[in-house]
Amino acid sequence: MPSDPRPAAPVSIETHGVDTIPDADRTGRPRDIAGILLGSNLCLGVVIFGWLPASFGLEFWPAVTSMIVGTLLGTLLVAPLALVSFRTGTNLSTSSGGHFGVRGRLIGSVIGLLLSLGYAALTVWTGGAAVVGPLHRMFGLPDDGVSHSITYAVLAVLSVLVAIFGYQLLTRLSKWVALGTVLLMAVGLFAYADQFQTSPVTDSGYLLGDFWPTWALSVVAAGLSGPMAFITLLGDYSRYVSPRRHSAGTVFGATCAGMLLGLLIPQLFGTFTAFASRAADDYVGSLVAAAPLWFLLPLLLNGVFGTIGNAGVLIYSMGLDLDAIVPPLSRVKATVLTSAISTVLVFLGYFVWDAQDAVTAFVLLLTAVGTPWAVITLIGFARCRGAYDPDALQVYNRRSRGGIYWYSGGWNLRAAAAWAIGSLVGLLAVDTALYKGPLLALTGGIDLSFVLAAAATAASYLLLGIGSPQPVPAEPDVRATANV
């Protein structure tokens, strides 16, 4: 298909929420999706996941292989979700109403909101540490709760301002962040090279006692969790790409490239620097302490701009999800509210929680409930062959009734039941330092929550859907019946 000949829209405060984007406004390109996935992920909030395998007691090469395997598996599952919003012109949680029902799609909105909340808090938390640490070494800034609190507040405000402007600013900012951070990481390899060792950084052995259970934990917590963080975010950007000017293949390819590069580059850098700085219990503190003086300024700049870029993308998505849950809220008001909640989580992460246990438990539990939602959405997309009624998807947002996705009171009970079954199986198979599911006794102590959740969901959804065909619009724009 021909490229979009029109110039990019000027940067201004985005007016669209979770409504259907008119084709005239769908000026995005597939490379914009790749750019924002690359740029928004090159920050310490993603880098820190490369430290997790080291903190689990793995040696360097098993840590690397676990992340590569997990990221590849996650990308294969998650990247096709970009095609859903590419077809519907709205975000993914709203699009999932075609399979869960126009009210049942609230499952996706809540999952997306929780995922973005947690990852945004993690991004600001690690970014704040990367700002305070270098300033402490360079200028003697007190490395205490007051300095961290002020830094967190400033980063949160800057991030929410970027999120309020929305799509156009985020896509342009991501390009510059990507360029600067790739250069920083390349320089960082030289900065830490003379300290690098492949031996474990902990003295306590494998976190789960044996190699394979710990390696499997790393596959899920450090590798798979990266792509899973995007199960509801991809549609925020693919909805701006017009199917009249671009093909599904180019959108899918750009999404895969952006996810793989955007996740593996920072995570592998995190693994390398974790082993070089011997970061056992505290990644960012060890990273700053082991950095040469000349590398502190680049590290500080990444702490600021990398955090703003990544947290801005996540807060933007949170605003869309809350807007979808509470339609009377505007996108801007929803964005400000969710950013305030995320900032509270940042302070809890610094003053209350243990970093490693909190991060690991968070990503594993949300992966267990997010995977079933993604599986159902993808199966539904395949069953309807990408044909949706965009107007009928907006019924809940208009506070009306009817349309081909109304199902039973706005809920597809079969999809909701399949999601519940898959989530339950996944939660029963999770293995973290805070919680161990009873199914671990049947899996040899290896965390197979992702695989079991996906398989249970697919089987139950297909079985429950026998005799219940996927609604397909008879015409390109079938109107929903309003009944306020």
Automatic annotation (TrEMBL):
GO molecular function term, any single one: transmembrane transporter activity
InterPro entries for the chain: Pur-cyt_permease, Pur-cyt_permease_Fcy2/21/22
Signal peptide: none
Domain of life: Bacteria
Record keyword Transport present: yes
Mode of membrane association: Multi-pass membrane protein
Localization (cell): Membrane
Subcellular location, principal: membrane
Family classification: Belongs to the purine-cytosine permease (2.A.39) family.
Swiss-Prot/TrEMBL keywords: Membrane, Transmembrane, Transmembrane helix, Transport
Transmembrane segments annotated in the record for this chain: 33-54, 60-86, 106-130, 150-169, 176-193, 213-235, 247-269, 289-313, 334-353, 359-382, 403-427, 439-464
Originating species: Saccharopolyspora hirsuta
Protein name: Cytosine permease
This protein's GO CC annotations: plasma membrane
